[in-house]
Specification:
This protein is mostly helical and about 350 residues long. It is built from 16 helices and two strands. It has a two-stranded antiparallel ribbon with strand order 1-2. A hairpin with a 2-residue loop joins β1 and β2 (about 125). α3 packs across α8 (about 190-215) and α12 crosses α15 (about 310-325). The model is unreliable at about 1-25 (pLDDT under 50). Bound molecules: farnesyl diphosphate and magnesium ion. Farnesyl diphosphate binds near residues 106, 118, 176 and 241.
Length: about 350
Amino acid sequence: MKKTDFLPCSPLPSMATPMGLFSCKTEQSRNFLNGVWALIGDDLTQTEQRMQEMLSSRYAFINSLTSYLERFRGKMLRPALVHLSARAFGGEAPAAVETAAVVELIHWASLCHDDVLDDAQARRGASTLNVRYGNHTAVLAGDFLLACSTERLVALHDPRPLRILTLASRRLCEGELLQISARHNETLDEETYFEIVNKKTAALFAAAAELGALTAGAGEAEAARMRVFGRHVGAAFQIADDCLDITGNETLAGKPVGADLKNGELTLPIIHLLRGSTPMKRHEIRRLLRPESAAGAVLTELLERNGSLTYAFNAAEEELRRARAELASLPASAAKTALTDLADFVLQRNV
Ligand code: FPP
Ligand code: MG
């Protein structure tokens, strides 16, 4: 990994986002990424090398699939959480590398499957695996990644990572299944939305932060606090992701916007908008939500006028406030500062 890979925010055109919410605050993002790089850049490089070893196959086709997946590599937030959490408890890289690599493999596996479920065409500016190789191959590639991660987990001398990550994977599946069952449900309530978010996204962030602490020898109570920290960060991340799906910039995001609405998935701003509308207004909104309506700009304007994007932003902020509270008892350290910065970063990103 080159240092520049950690600098996704070059000077940007202003986002279409109302009031600058969920926009990329370039300098802050850059500072965070540089800070993290200085602290755990080597750990992340080792993590990536380990992932390559874990995925290495004797079959050229499988190697071509796993190298194709590398173009979807993001900021490695989950491995960063493992490493920073470990360092916050005095841990060193070697113990955390194996776990961080496995966590990222599970994340990649979930993306392979997610893109099939969402019929997604692009991720990070490249054609998804399902577009490039077809659904069958994409599903099996996800299974392969998951099997490789399990193989490594059972080889560890500690049963806890296997237990924690099996449970997290189960939660990811539950979240996705819950999301499918809620598709096109215009009466979807906020509680169910948060349940989906906590399962499909926050569960893996939670596991990453908990495992980092455990690999550094933290006690159960300390690790549980890190798990709660990770869960809140993950929830804020997904709320931001859902808002970017409405207000984001396709070129910057590297994936089409409006995918959630196209798939009938109601996210927090829409839930808020529908809740505060009269039956007549709700009828109009329902029309705008139809996949064929192509009324993105009208909908964004309505969401803005109704304060629904601000509402979602505040909900994400509240998640981050709760996340930061979990760090209060940690002694001051560069890792603790970076964990706080990482939490803030999830609302400053634009991809
Ligand atoms: C992205 O959500 C998807 C997830 C956070 C989780 C996907 C999980 C599964 C498909 C279950 C299978 C799990 C395993 C472990 C194989 P999104 O679609 O809202 O975000 P996107 O815009 O990045 O696609
Ligand atoms: Mg998706």
